[in-house]
Amino acid sequence: MKFKKIIQTINKNVPHISAKKNKRFFISVAIGVLGFAAIIIATASITYYLTIRANAEAISAFEKSGITVESLAEKVIPQEGYTVKLNWGDTGQKLVESGAIDLQKYKDNYGDDRYQQLMTFITDTKNESITVNAENSYFWVNTLWALGLVQKSDVLEKGIMGTEYKDEIGNFASTGGWTLGAKDAVTLYSSVNIVDLTTEQQQRVAKITENIYRPCCGNSAAFPDCNHGMAILGLVELMVAQGFSDQEIYEASLAFNSYWFPQTYADLAYYFETKQDTVWEDVDPKTVLGQAYSSGQGYARIKQEIGNIPGLQSGGGSCGA
């Protein structure tokens, strides 16, 4: 009855349409549009309400947990950084010799005083370990990206990028986005043995990288289509070549990922501590790096469950040089 009155009201106010059939059709369409608009408004209102409520519940849960943003940061990205006790050697010099790094571009890009010591990893032989921290994570993502890109690799040649996308190699962020080399990325791609890897070691690199995801996308480091994936590939290759265990490689990869995506891994540390009753130090690195937690989709699911942590800055690593 109500619906009939609505039609009659609209019928009186609709401009004259010669054919009664067309007029009724117009009215039906108008009713449909109004109904659809009402659904959109109602859905938006409910979503807004649920978001506000979820954030309020997240803030309350965070305050009750006794966990602070500072304590999360100290666990996930400690100020002193994370040190991988590998021998860097002349890796940086080889990257320059191969054309993967243009030394002048690097000097221009890292001209600040804070980078002067780091630049010796490019210009000198450094028989020492490497340390990633909040201050130098940008340097290491680029430097390891160069290594992952140029190193001869089964992952690059026999994996998804080198087979399914062989004719489109230059179109990825990890290739087309590399602007700090002396040669173009397609020329550099899997072209030089910076580190020597046996057939068995190449297979091990492929197996390990299949289990390492990053939250900027849904792919593993075995499909390194962005800079973070390519950088992790380079790190894994270095560590495999020097005989590190799988566990050590996953620990290092998680540390580097954490400095590149601090919010993601602070959120995950909070999730494991409050939802899984597991402190960050006891979480298995391989598990955290897997698709369920470290991929873009996996992290989004966790984020939806825990909401926004008050005081934690949002943002993540850029996929460009």
Structure notes:
- The protein is mostly helical.
- It folds into two domains: 63 residues; 234 residues, no CATH class.
- It contains 18 helices and two strands.
- Helix 12 crosses helix 13.
- It is globular, with a radius of gyration of 27 Å.
- Keywords: Membrane, Transmembrane, Transmembrane helix.
Quick rundown:
The protein has 321 residues and is an all-alpha fold.
Low-confidence stretches at least 5 residues in length (pLDDT < 50)? 47-64
* Biggest sheet statistics: 2 strands, antiparallel
Order of strands across the widest beta sheet?
1-2
First and last CA, distance: 65 Å
What attributes characterize this protein structure?
single chain, 321 residues, mainly alpha
Secondary-structure blueprint:
Elements: H1 2-13, H2 20-65, H3 69-76, E1 82-84, H4 91-98, H5 103-109, H6 116-123, E2 130-132, H7 137-150, H8 154-158, H9 160-163, H10 173-176, H11 185-188, H12 199-209, H13 227-241, H14 246-260, H15 262-275, H16 285-289, H17 291-294, H18 296-306
Antiparallel strand pairs: 1-2
Keywords: Membrane, Transmembrane, Transmembrane helix
Transmembrane segments: 25-50
